Amino acid sequence: MNVRVISGKYGGRVLDAPSRRSTHAMSERARNALFNSLGQEMSGAKVLDAFAGSGSLGIEALSRGAASALFIEKDRVAAKIIQKNVHLLGISEAKVIATTVSNWLDTAEVDEFDVIFADPPYHDTQFSTVSRLLGLLKPGALMVLSHPGKGEVPSKTGVVVVDNRSYGNLNLTLYRRDTV
């Protein structure tokens, strides 16, 4: 399977992606709409691509001006494909970690991010882990959660839902951390 970088520095480049059995890549249409709505959020941003899958969200962010991206992906094959894509594009501002997001949160010295993309598996949304990710947002920072259906989504004091969008069976909930 292949995924295309839509715009920016790497626009038009085709990335390898893991099989659809292990990941669910966001459609090009939904990714384009999302990144167009984010506008200048990417400029100089420190990005976390949690549940990275193909890495298309983090790579698109880097293509559109993010300063760095950290990819967390538990599937070792998918993590190797992300690493290969990062290498082929000559991206030095990326780091790929092959572990679960929960393990990474438990064991790593985690930092705060300007933008977090959380795209957990649809069969296991791991909202308790996603809720922990909300705590990694810098003041004023943004998190994009990709999830199926329009049911309950995680919440956290000091973080507000600023937008909800639907693209077929894909729903995006955008959160912003208070600046206080």
What keyword list fits this structure?
single chain; 180 residues; Rossmann fold; globular
Topology:
Layout: E1 2-4, E2 14-16, H1 28-38, E3 46-50, H2 56-63, E4 68-72, H3 76-89, E5 94-97, H4 101-107, E6 113-118, H5 127-134, E7 137-148, E8 159-167, E9 170-177
Parallel strand pairs: 3-4, 3-6, 4-5, 6-7
Antiparallel strand pairs: 1-2, 7-9, 8-9
What report would you give on this structure?
The protein has a single domain, classed as Rossmann fold (3-Layer(aba) Sandwich), CATH 3.40.50. Helix content is 27%, strand content 31%. The chain has 5 helices and 9 strands, in the order E-E-H-E-H-E-H-E-H-E-H-E-E-E. The strands form 2 sheets. Strands 5-4-3-6-7-9-8 form a 7-stranded mixed beta sheet, with helices on both faces. A two-stranded antiparallel ribbon has the order 1-2. Strand 6, helix 5 and strand 7 form a beta-alpha-beta unit. The model has no long low-confidence stretch (mean pLDDT 90).
